[in-house]
Design a protein that fits this description.
The chain is α/β, with parallel strands linked by helices. Helices cover 55% and strands 9% of the residues. It has helices at residues 23-39, 43-52, 57-64, 69-72, 81-93, 100-109, 120-124, 148-162, 180-197, 215-250, 263-279, 290-301, 315-322, 325-331, 359-365, 377-391, 401-411, 416-432, 440-460, 464-478, 486-500, 507-519, 545-553, 556-559, 565-573, and strands at 170-174, 202-208, 306-313, 340-348, 368-372, 484-485, 523-529, 535-541. The strands form two sheets. A five-stranded parallel β-sheet has the order 2-3-4-1-5, with helices on both faces. It has a three-stranded antiparallel β-sheet with strand order 6-8-7. Helix 16 (377-391) packs across helix 17 (401-411). The longest helix has 36 residues, at 215-250. The radius of gyration is 31 Å and the shape is elongated. The two termini are 60 Å apart. The protein binds adenosine-5'-diphosphate and magnesium ion (MG). Adenosine-5'-diphosphate binds next to helix 9 and helix 18.
Length: 574
């Protein structure tokens, strides 16, 4: 029910259907209609499909879902087995949806009925989720089991800020999904709310350096945040001064208890504040020299007394992209600031990122280091259980669901994000197949789907040359070649390059590209000794052939290869 509200997930560019947010159905549903519509022969059908846009998915799935040719004939269609299965389930599982096509013709032809029940059946089942939001990465949990030590260490260091002292800089390390961001945000919320409670000027600024990835942008974002806050402070102060001013006009005696000896002093102060407000100029998103951005930021922070904790999440991305200048500048600011103090909290997924830092930056930033170790399967179970209690209806999960999600994610370097993704996807699959309860089967389907999504994304973003090499491997595999060797790949690769007018790399470079594909887990290559003929690599595909080929062919250059079969065949005929 709440599905329509979600924003699209990263990497899901096609996610425009209002009725679903999940890449899984989205892929299938958005891709299916065009192929289905060509399968419909009658014009009225086609018209109704075209005019109803994305809403047709359920209807056409029911009508054509059982047709095995539908998927085979679509070339670039990146359908998954899982998708097909589930779509079939959705179709056959709905008891009272025997005539969906008729309903859809009605959508267009019959204006009298208000609705044709497109969503009714989907809504009618008992929902599995109580609150799916809780399983999304955007949700910040209030409880973080198994992170007490790390959270307490952060708090112990940052408490100085509440005493008006400068906390040591902190560097946090850990692989993705180990709870770094969630813990840091939790601590910063606590810190800010405590500072308000005791009325101590302490602020936390969070920056995600994967998004804000240059020195200019980091400094500009900080400068503008502080300028905005300063404007608020100035506005408050002006209000108070003006109020005092009007009281003092009636009774100059009120000034006696204030810092202003005379009305002129008060007027001067008002002038001063008004000038400050006017002069605070926001930093534009581009265009200024960096020193100007830096000094604007500097003045903005130092406008009044405060301790600022700057949280730089994904700090390794910033250093990778733009070097360590930002960190250098930030880390030596305290010696020049007069009223305020800053403390830096860096969060890194890359354990070795300090190797690239200037030694001065390294020692300043790493005054305190906190490591977030991967979760083991038991810890992941606890984390999932906490979330599942809020996310799902009672009794919506069989007993093996959480342990299985935990076990799969533990294999993925103890990644809690992966564990939560699995649980959410399993729930969605169960929901789509109109199952009453989420079971082991759904978790396994979810695992396959997530893995396939990953492969699709990796393959889609490969450089063209790697795609051609991979395509050569696929063609060989499809022709039943086992233990494919580098020479065979290279021969097909050359022909493919000629076919699409691409540069032909040397066999050595192609071997390197194969090693890269191996590292990405797309092919599995082993070096085999051929005695006095030297050594060669033998490989096989470690990803599903059909889907991978479909992704490759969706690339406009590779899509130009009309029919590769003849020259692959020619190789075998020789
Ligand atoms: P990182 O920043 O280390 O990559 P996150 O903090 O973003 O990891 O955590 C990934 C996901 O797992 C988030 O949805 C987060 O809420 C959740 N998570 C991580 N650790 C815990 C925990 N100890 N308890 C509950 N949820 C957690
Ligand atoms: Mg993070």
């Amino acid at each position: 029910m709440d599905e329509g509200e979600h924003t699209s997930q990263a990497g899901e560019s096609e996610d425009s259907g209002g009725e679903t947010d999940d890449p899984f159905t989205t892929d299938g549903d958005l891709d299916d209609p065009p192929s289905s519509s060509t399968d419909h022969q009658t014009d009225p059908d086609r018209e109704s499909i075209d005019s109803t846009g994305s809403d047709i998915t359920v209807g056409t799935d029911d009508g054509t879902g059982s047709d095995p040719d539908t998927d085979g004939g679509t070339g670039g269609d990146v359908d998954t087995e899982v998708t097909t299965d589930t779509d079939v389930d959705v179709g056959s599982g709905g008891r009272d949806r025997s005539t969906p096509d008729v309903d859809f013709d009605g959508v267009v032809l019959d204006d009298e009925d208000e609705n044709q029940g497109l969503f009714d059946d989907l809504l009618s089942g008992e929902p599995i989720f109580e609150n799916k939001e809780v399983l999304r990465p955007s949700y910040t949990p209030h409880e973080l089991p198994h992170r007490n030590d790390q959270i307490n260490r952060m708090a112990t260091i940052l408490v100085s800020a509440l005493r008006g002292e400068t906390p040591s800089n902190i560097l946090i390390y850990g692989k993705t999904g180990t709870g770094k961001t969630a813990s840091a945000k939790f601590v910063s919320q606590e810190l800010e709310s405590t500072s308000q409670k005791y009325d101590v000027p302490c602020e936390v600024e969070y920056i995600n350096c994967e998004v804000t990835d240059t020195q200019y942008r980091v400094l500009a974002q900080l400068a503008n945040t502080f300028i905005e806050k300063n404007q608020q402070v100035i506005a408050d102060r002006l209000d108070r001064c003006r109020e005092l001013r009007s009281e003092a006009t009636d009774d100059p005696g009120v000034l006696a208890t204030t810092e202003f000896a005379t009305l002129d002093d008060l007027d001067a102060r008002i002038d001063e504040l008004e000038t400050d407000a006017e002069e605070m100029e926001e930093v534009p998103m581009t265009g200024w020299p960096t020193d100007r951005v830096y000094s604007t930021f500097f003045e903005a922070v130092d406008y009044h007394e405060r301790v600022v904790v700057i949280m730089l999440d994904e700090i390794d991305k910033l250093v990778e992209k733009s070097g360590d200048d930002t960190l250098y500048n930030l880390s030596r600011m305290n010696s020049e600031l007069e009223k305020s103090r800053i403390s830096i909290m860096g969060i890194s997924n890359d354990l070795k990122f300090t190797d690239f830092l200037d030694p001065r930056v390294k020692s300043s930033l790493g005054e305190e280091e906190i490591v977030f170790p991967p979760y083991d399967a038991n810890q992941l179970r606890d984390i999932l259980q906490h979330r599942a209690d809020i996310a799902f209806k009672e009794e919506a999960l069989t007993d093996d669901v959480i342990p299985l999600c935990a076990a799969f994610a533990a294999q993925e370097h103890g990644d809690a994000r992966r564990a939560l993704d699995l649980l959410r996807t399993a729930g969605e699959l169960a929901e789509r197949s109109q199952a009453e309860i989420v079971g082991e089967k759904h978790v396994r389907q979810a695992q396959d789907k997530i893995e396939l999504d990953r492969v699709v994304e990796v393959v889609r973003t490969l450089p063209t040359q790697s795609k051609i090499v991979l395509f050569a491997v696929i063609l060989l595999e499809k022709n039943g070649v086992h233990n494919i060797n580098t020479g065979e790949v290279f021969n097909i690769y050359k022909r493919l390059c000629e076919e699409i007018d691409a540069d032909v790399l040397t066999q050595r470079r192609v071997t390197d590209l194969i090693s890269e594909l191996d590292m990405l887990g797309i092919v599995n290559a082993v070096v085999v000794s051929k005695g006095r003929y030297g050594r060669t690599k033998e490989m096989g595909l470690s990803v599903p052939v059909e889907e991978t080929e479909a992704v490759l062919l969706s690339d406009s250059r590779l899509g130009d290869i009309e029919n590769a079969q003849p020259f692959v065949q020619a190789r075998f005929d020789n």
